[in-house]
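Many introductory courses stop at the sequence. We go one step further.
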Amino acid sequence: MRFPLLAATAAVIASAPATGSPQSITLRGAPSAQSNDLAAVQQHLRSLSTMTADFSQTDRNGKVLTGKLSLKQPGKVRFQYAPGVPLLIVAEGGALTFVDYSVRQVQRWPIRNSPLGVLLDPRRDLTRYAKIVPGTDPRVVSVEARDPRHPEYGRITLVLARQPSAPAGLTLQGWVALDSQGNRTTVRLSNQQYGVPVGDETFRWSDPRKGARRS
């Protein structure tokens, strides 16, 4: 039982900051530089109030799905897939919900048990469960996060590009998630917009189960 979007990966993805082609990511440098980068990532996550972006999701079999991401802190996110894809992922109220309208199935997980918890609970101290992944491109920072006490939660590698105009001088480019079975999912973001209006109604969803209602 796994999310098509979230069950996934550990290898690090790379997305060049602007128009560059994908490449292997993360920073190299002295431990102090890495500590500064980790602090900047923490500041970036904590300063996010809202964000919207287009996303492209690639699973372990190479299947690609696209859609729109909407995020609002604290703890709300929606992955709205493109028309024709009967899937929806929504986080709100401490739970991450996967809806498959094609089979009228709803599955829910605590956000804290998901790799995306690092995005949706920025109050957590990154230094306790995350590290900078050494790389070769100084324009890109990647951070691997996992809970050593709960390997079953999987791990996630966030990829951020240096961008002075973005929160804390970084912009989230995407991530790679790896679940405990080794299933990998890569998500790339584009057209990121920060601080835009995102209403709470964005995170409402229709329950496909017979006789059930969700407002």
